[in-house]
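#structure-requests
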Amino acid sequence: MPPVENPFASLSRVMHEPNRLALISALAAAVDGLSFNELKQACNLTDGNLNRHLKALEDEGIVAQRKEATPSARPRTTITLTSAGRRRFVKYLENLEEVLQQAATAVGSPASSLITPRPNRV
């Protein structure tokens, strides 16, 4: 019997971490990006925790940070999802959907009939 392929191997580890997944999801919905504070509040993270996760995502080219001067002399940091990050996130979601479909089928869940496979996009 051939070994069963591990469906989780296709999931991006950098995106699969729960806080990073929350960050990317929030940024995916914000066309113009979010300020550091908006993102911190949306994902319920501390400054240090948010900085650590943003660094990991920025190192992977998934997010970009832009600092701007403001009248209050405090810089405003805006975080956006890069084009490459958006493509990687879509691919991650497709892979996650496949993993969930396989899991639902394996356990015979009635939910497996609710998850409909999508045709492959090129």
